Amino acid sequence: ETGVTQTPRHLVMGMTNKKSLKCEQHLGHNAMYWYKQSAKKPLELMFVYSLEERVENNSVPSRFSPECPNSSHLFLHLHTLQPEDSALYLCASSRLPAQEQYFGPGTRLTVT
Amino acid sequence: AQKVTQAQTEISVVEKEDVTLDCVYETRDTTYYLFWYKQPPSGELVFLIRRNSFDEQNEISGRYSWNFQKSTSSFNFTITASQVVDSAVYFCALSENSGGSNYKLTFGKGTLLTVNP
Asked: For a tag site, which of A2, A3, A14, B17 has the least CB within 10 Å?
């Protein structure tokens, strides 16, 4: 059983929709991450939060907006996405930034 | 240049064969961390091992073993007596300091391992 949960597991949205992805970790970790995994590219780090503060934003378009209200929860707010944003979005957490990350099952996003 | 290179895109073996997945990394840091992750068809990445740069001891865990060689910047992963359930994409990753106490994890492109019965 994973200590990192993600909802929803699957999401289909139109380009004008607004939706949010949710991630919750039950491991007492202090760092949380969003990754994008698409078919033709390696795993891409999007955002890093450490102690609820965003410490990394890897040139992600503003149509993706992260939110970390506390150390256990991480959101990714989506707005006016493009079809090329269709991918598996993975959330992860780690006790400290240098340590191993534990991943959630991902949200399979399809933008139509 | 890639920081983490997994030259083998796909490997196919027959059950019970041994298989080695290669990983070569590049870093200027003296302190860094290396990882292996498994991603089965279900999609969730599963952490397998972490190795610190100052610890070159090889490790064995059941049918899995890892060979860390700083001299060649390699961190190879061997599965002994492979099983069908080992079929997955395996990722090697490098964690380096990105400023202050922050670290950035960079993944290789992954190796798809298929174990046939």
From this structure: A14
